[in-house]
Amino acid sequence: MGIKSLVILGVLFSNLCYADLLTPEMVLSEAYKSNPALAAVKATADAEKELISSEYSLSSPRLGFMRETDMSFMQMEDGPMKTWSISQEFLFPTKYFSRGSIQEAKAKRSLHELRYKKLQIRAESLSTYFKPKSVHKTSRPILLTFPS
Predict the structure, then answer these.
(1) 15 within some domain
(2) pLDDT digits (tens, 9 = 90+) for 100-139
(3) With 70 as the cut, is the pLDDT of residue 19 above it?
(4) SS3 annotation, the chain
(5) Which residue would you say has higher pLDDT here, 135 or 28?
(6) Which domain holds residue 128?
(7) Which of 37, 44, 55, 104 supports an S-S bond with 99, CB 3.0-4.6 Å?
(8) Which residues does residue 83 pair with via DSSP β-bridges, in sequence order?
(9) Phi and psi for 86 in degrees, rounded to 5?
(10) According to the model, what pLDDT value does residue 66 have?
């Protein structure tokens, strides 16, 4: 055997060894990491989950400042008028509970969409992974049935 044939056998053997190292778990993890649609659905689900607490709580208070500029002569003698204000909007308590439960339902729906997307990607990836193996297994008996 020459050096050339040893190199060719080495390359073929390394390709076969590398092909066996690729497992279905590796295929799935790579498919989950590299799929932009899954990342978008995951970001939506995370955002919907984060909004739950804000729907149960009060809105942010408002701070106001007013300075009166259109004053009469007598008002100008007293000095400029400045007003500070802080206001808070309060809704009826059941509104907070209903808004929070609606947001929880939206978050649950987003989580179901995420699971569905993962299952779709899983089905596509595993069928692509096992397709060459199944074609190879089904083609062997067909080739063996033909007379040589």
Answers:
(1) no
(2) 999 999 999 999 999 999 999 999 988 888 877 665 555 5
(3) no
(4) CCHHHHHHHHHHHHHHHHHHHCCHHHHHHHHHHHCHHHHHHHHHHHHHHHHHHHHHCCCCCEEEEEECCCCCHHHHHHCCCEEEEEECCCCCHHHHHHHHHHHHHHHHHHHHHHHHHHHHHHHHHHHHHHHHHHHHHHHHHHHHHCCC
(5) 28
(6) 23-59+91-145
(7) 55
(8) 66
(9) -130, 130
(10) 82
Provide the pLDDT confidence category of residue 60 given band limits of 50, 70 and 90: confident
Percent of all residues in the chain with a pLDDT value above 90, rounded to a whole number = 36
What pLDDT is stored for residue 5 in this prediction? 41
What region does 79 belong to: left with phi over 0, alpha with psi -120 to 50, or beta?
left
Q: How far apart are CA 43 and CA 119, in angstroms?
A: 17
Q: Is residue 117 part of a domain?
A: yes
Is the CB of residue 80 less than 8 Å from the CB of residue 131?
no
Q: Which of 16, 6, 28 is nearest to 119 (CA)?
A: 28
Residue 126 class from Cβ within 10 Å (0-12 exposed, 13-18 middle, 19+ buried)? Answer: middle
Are the C-beta atoms of residues 37 and 134 closer than 8 Å to each other?
Answer: no
The count of domains in the chain is: 1
pLDDT higher than 50, residue 12: no
- Asked if residue 11 is part of any domain, the answer here is no
